[in-house]
From TrEMBL:
A molecular-function term among this protein's GO annotations: DNA binding
Full protein name: LacI family transcriptional regulator
Taxonomic source organism: Enterobacter cancerogenus
Domain (HTH lacI-type): residue spans on this chain: 4-35
Database matches in InterPro entries: DUF7317 (IPR055741), HTH_LacI (IPR000843), Lambda_DNA-bd_dom_sf (IPR010982)
GO biological process: regulation of DNA-templated transcription
PROSITE patterns: HTH_LACI_2
Domain of life of the organism encoding this protein: Bacteria
């Protein structure tokens, strides 16, 4: 049970991190195009 939970948490954390990085990149592009 613990292993499965940790795996799920790790997957969620990875997805959230990827989403945040994508959002930051998109915002960076917007700021660059609209200084």
């Amino acid at each position: 049970m613990t292993t499965v939970t940790l795996a799920q948490v790790a997957e969620r954390a990875g997805v959230s991190t990827a989403t945040v990085s994508m959002v930051l990149r998109n915002r960076g592009a917007d700021l660059a195009s609209h200084p």
